[in-house]
Write a structure and sequence with these properties.
Elements: H1 37-61, E1 86-90, E2 93-100, H2 106-122, H3 137-142
Antiparallel strand pairs: 1-2
Amino acid sequence: GLPSIEVPGIKVSAHFAGPMVDPGRRPKSAGGFGAGADEEKSAAGRIAEVVAANKRFIATKFPNLEAEPFLSYNCLYTCTADHDYIIGPAPGFPAVTLAGGGSGHAFKMGPAIGELSACLALGEEPPIAVGEKFCVERLLSTQGLGTRSA
């Protein structure tokens, strides 16, 4: 977890990949500037479901805590199809290092992602083997957009 900074209490979060959204048309109920009436209603319903699930989790796992949230935020983050990072050279551009697809985990792993990316960009040996696990080609091949080399 992360330390409490300016907000007392604990952080409870549902991690799931929601629908693809245009950040400029994000529903108000999801922390954006607004969308159409149907999108607003749908987003409000999904958020209510997530809050209810979090309250059930708290009541079950932490029965001595107040389950009703006193503060709630929604956030956007990038997700890859397999929920793993993209760290490695850009296909066809070996001098370009990609680092992304944090799938909700990148903030806490930022220093490690930065170190790996810097090593790869500078042609140095990274502290851990990156291999194919984080290569972007794995995603291109699963979507039929490219081929994965053996």
